[in-house]
Amino acid sequence: GRAVGVEGDARWTDPATGETTADGRTRRLIVRARSVIVAAGALRTPAVLQGSGLEHPAIGRHLRLHPVPVVAGFFPQPIDMWRGTMQAAHALEFAEPAARNNGYVIESAPGHPGLLALALPWEGTDAHADVMLRSRRIGPFIAVTRDGGEGRTRITRAGRIRVDYQLDSGGVSTLRHALVSMARLARAAGASELLAAGTPPIWHGRGGFAPGREQAAFARFESALASFDLRPNRGSVFSAHQMGSARMGGDSRDHACDPWGRVRRDGRSDQRVQGLYVADGSLFPTGLGVNPMITIMVLARRVSRTILAEA
Fold first, then answer.
1. Which residues contact 107 (CB under 8 A, 6 or more apart)?
2. Which of 131, 238, 249 is CA-nearest to residue 193?
3. CA neighbours within 13 Å on the CB side: how many for 133?
4. pTM: predicted TM-score of the whole model, two decimal places
5. Eight-state DSSP code of residue 113
6. Tell me: the pLDDT tens digits for 31-69?
7. Do the beta carbons of residue 166 and residue 151 sit within 8 Å?
């Protein structure tokens, strides 16, 4: 009924040389502590809790990811997204939920050639080389969308983490709305070509336009984005924010942690595991719809005050 420390395998390191032991083997390490704080992120915190024998049914469930669609604008002048401030601009115009739209924040995205090569769609060797040769002129736009749907994490037999996630219809509508908004923004900013990431991608302006035909072509591009195929392995969806897999709340049946970050034993009562706390994005009751780093810092401060009060 109480957390008394942490146990695991570790590679011992020589403090004088910084090198691991000559045999390279792991050894059992036990650290005893009055308070144990789990902060392995929303993908691995549930695994630590589950691997420790905790059986609350909400552990690993209610995972939120902030699904992110991408539109790349190709501009006449160099952008060099990898220089200067990495993420200097955002637009909050669509942050509040609306009809069939959960809300999202449009942001400029940083990157470097390696990340671009990974993220941009593959249409063959020559096509990919052409895109990469023009990487200095790419201005990528991303939309951090509020989740429509949720997922879960669990431990596989091999001890790895499995993530399952399913968008609902509201999440799909939000991603499509965001794609149209980002395309309009990139076009208004002067992009001569636009690419919506997917398999296959959707292009606007790739082969140029006949005189006076760009506006009609963009209208068709908007229509294609508004019905973008977001089934698995079709529309490209990214994520940098994982949340909610050990969420905090007052309902002991459906929240693995209480409002102060203390871990509940199970879903049948409101009993806590003494001395055990979660202090990371796993605590989020739901997805924020904005970058979560400041909120994670605030939650860490809140949990820290609880630990000090109970130590």
1. 87, 89, 90, 91, 141, 142, 143, 144
2. 131
3. 6
4. 0.89
5. H
6. 999 999 999 999 999 999 999 999 999 999 999 999 999
7. yes
Helix (H) / strand (E) containing 193:
strand 193-196
> CA 75 from chain center: how many Å?
28
- Dig out the tokens for 101 from the structure: 């739209």
Structure tokens at 206: 């790739």
Q: Which amino acid is at 90?
A: H
Indicate the residue type of 45.
T
Q: Phi first, then psi: give them for residue 247, nearest 5 degrees.
A: -70, 155
